[in-house]
Amino acid sequence: MGSLWAGVDVGKTHHHLCVIDDDGTVVLSEKIPNDQQAISGIAGRLGKRRKPIRWAVDLRGGPASLLLAVLFDRGADVRYVSGTVSSRMAEAFHGERKTDAHDAYVIAQTLRMRGDLPTLTLADGVQQQLKLLVSRRLDLVADRVRITARVQDLLTMISPALEKTLNLRSKGALRLLAQWQTPAGLRRAGEARILAYLRQHGVRAAKALTAKVLTAVRTQTVAVAGETTAAGILAQMATDLEAVNGRITAIEETIAAVVAEHELGEIVTSLPGIGTTLAAEFLAHAGTLTTYASPAALAAHAGLAPISRDSGRRKGHQVRPHRYHRGLRRVFSMSSFTALTHCPRSRAYYDKKRAEGKTHRQATAALSRQRLNVLWACIRDKTPYQPKEPRSAEVASCELA
Predict the structure, then answer these.
(1) For domain 4-120, which CATH number applies: 3.30.420.10, 1.20.58.480, 3.40.50.720, 3.30.1330.60?
(2) Which terminal Cβ of the chain has fewer Cβ within 10 Å, N or C?
(3) At what angle do helices 276-286 and 326-342 cross, to 10 degrees?
């Protein structure tokens, strides 16, 4: 009876669908609008052929969301062909053209020839939710860094002494700058008024902050050029920074709630060094690990497995890969760095690698690889990590190894 292989080049307003048979012959090549009726219609037409059909897409979210929702609702078998895989496979076919129809054809051929493509499921909806939350948090953090740097520049221009005194991470400093920005303005306000204002807004240690600020502004009695304009901009940016901090706190609470409800949330966060934020990033990038056949496959995707560069007589030459998932690499690198302080076993393993002559970077990468194995085992066994106090550093390093 044979099978049909459908490749979809996903687009914003339209998708291009290419369907081939077992021999690789094109059965259908058609442009379809990105709406439910059109997608359901083409899926229904293909279903009438009474042949098993598999689908493949080159995106897992965004413009592909409605397409995937319709296909999942029909119980379709959907696989994922990444942009990198599609680009590499395109080199195996005739011509150098780059069209939506050709891309869909390449995706369909890749689906037909490769049986190791990851399967997409409804569970990817939770993964997509985490991706959106993690991405939004990273955007907000970038905004916070940018605004903080600008506030520091303006404050240094107005009063270097005040810039050294204020901690822009504290609520009190931002509340203060939203109201008063210049040494003259703070001196005119006086201790009683500043203290009452800070207490009214729930600032902790308001008295100590007031004393430090007044001490700093009394050292400067001259006004710099452009002070009035800079003060107005500074007040606005301090308010913006407060708002961004509030949004970051809110989205981190949402992320923590989603991770707590996730089937692997407790297991991932049980590994020392991985909090709710890094756990969310891991689950957003790796999902439930169904797309990885082994910990080695996950390590390769995260850039923690060296690749061979042998040629002729040169054997055993291994280098760091250039193509890997930066997000996954960041999760394991950041968590390993934290674990060096809070996990005796991780510290002992790192010290062992350093004693073997490894550089800091190499030892940290080795620790990340080892921790990946531990996390994989915990997820495989559906059991949270249970640390045991090592009897000594030497015993700990041997056990972790």
Answers:
(1) 3.30.420.10
(2) N
(3) 150
Tens-place pLDDT, residues 60-88: 878 998 999 999 999 899 999 988 888 88
Going along 289-401, which residue ranges are E strands? Answer: 307-308, 318-319
Residue 21's nearest CA partner among 45, 67, 43, 52 is: 52
Q: Tell me which residue of 161, 75, 164, 87 sits closest to 120, measured CA to CA.
A: 75
Collect contacts of 22-26 with beta carbons under 8 A, ≥24 apart: 22/112, 24/109, 24/112, 26/105
- Helix, strand and coil content of the chain, in percent to the nearest 5, comes to 60, 10, 30
Note the pTM of the prediction, 2 decimals.
0.77
Cα distance between residue 233 and residue 231, in whole Å: 5
Structure tokens at 172: 């009190």
Helix and strand numbers, DSSP H then E, in the chain: 17, 8
Q: pLDDT tens-digit profile of 108-156?
A: 999 999 888 888 877 656 788 898 999 999 999 999 999 999 999 999 9
Look at residue 394 and give its three-state secondary structure: helix
pLDDT in tens, 312-327: 777 766 667 777 888 8
Helices 100-113 & 83-90 angle (0-180, nearest 10): 90
Fold of domain 131-256? Helix Hairpins (1.10.287)
> Quick check: 105 and 81 in contact, CB under 8 A?
no
Those residues whose C-beta lies under 8 Å from the C-beta of residue 10, and which sit 6 or more positions away, are 57, 58, 59, 63, 64, 67
Using pLDDT thresholds of 50, 70 and 90, give the confidence band for residue 401.
very low
